[in-house]
Amino acid sequence: MAVQAADLSVSPVQLAEADRTAQQGIPVADLSPNAPSQYTVRSGDTLWGISGQYLRQPWRWPQLWGMNRQQVHNPHLIYPGQILYLVQRDGRAYLSTNPPGGASGDVRLSPRIRGNGGDGEAIQSIASSDIEPFLIRPLVVDQGTVDTSARIVALPDARVYMGRGDMAYARGIAPADASLGSDWQAFRPASPVLDPVTGRVIGFEAAYEGSVRVTRGPEGPNAVTTVQATQSLQEIGPGSLLLPQPQRELIRYVPHAPDGEVEGRVAAVYGGVRYGGAKQIVVLNIGANAGLEPGHVLALSSDGGHVADPTDGNRAIELPDDRYGLAYVYRVFPGVAYALVTDASNVMKVGDIASTPR
């Protein structure tokens, strides 16, 4: 399967911020107490991990790591073997690939793109092993997807389920999409995912069943396509829905806070459980329609709620929200987004708040 790099475009806001911080840096007080003065990037490192080494607030990475955009096409690519230098001057901190005291004497944030090799050598934003199954499989699908997806309608010899190597017949695959050898995911919509605020159904958790490959294009008046199972994790049979297999994307979005105020809720924890913790995948009830984009880091908080104050005649008072962790958004759709919980000091649950970190 081909591996494609994610869209590495830089927003105008990020460009402006990088230009500004290339001159200003950040306050030294915002550095992590153990921030290294020099660090050699290693294979297996991630942007998030390096950010955490240097910053108390890892999502402020763009403020520490600027770029000279006249020379650098993409400021987010960092490669194993590169040496990062932390420069502190006049109470401000800068990160550079140029050692302090260079010939020019002007310390600028200027990451460099390697002349040899491709972008595939660059480190990723977060560990792909943490989200590997969710890069190419549907986690939540909306009603429109359920209603319009292609589906398996029959198996040869009146069999009920198919295993790896077995054939089946499907309908709903358009001729333009039914090229020989094209791969499709088989899934069934499982339990509904509810918006914890409104209670409405925002999607259905997709139970991934396996993958099939087109072996013969649509034929006959009913446009029946023949497929063969290439992977079978659960029982695939008539009624199983099909979606095109997307290409796996390498996650290289720079971790950063949203430009404005964003607030949503945890609508689901992967696996159908209500509670979770670090390294788990969550579904948020907001997406691109709320301004979310891949690379956004959100703070996770439990709702403080209301209690009666016994010292004031049991008057109802609102408690402050209790922030306990961070979530890295890596896949965004119009009304939902997937995020990896990078750290959590408390138990995470459905209904918790996901908002712009402060």
From TrEMBL:
Residues 37-86 form the LysM domain. CDD domains: LysM. PROSITE patterns: LYSM. InterPro entries: Bact_Kbp, LysM, LysM_dom_sf. Pfam families: LysM. PANTHER family: PHAGE-LIKE ELEMENT PBSX PROTEIN XKDP (PTHR34700:SF4), POTASSIUM BINDING PROTEIN KBP (PTHR34700). This is LysM domain-containing protein. It comes from Cupriavidus metallidurans (strain ATCC 43123 / DSM 2839 / NBRC 102507 / CH34) (Ralstonia metallidurans).
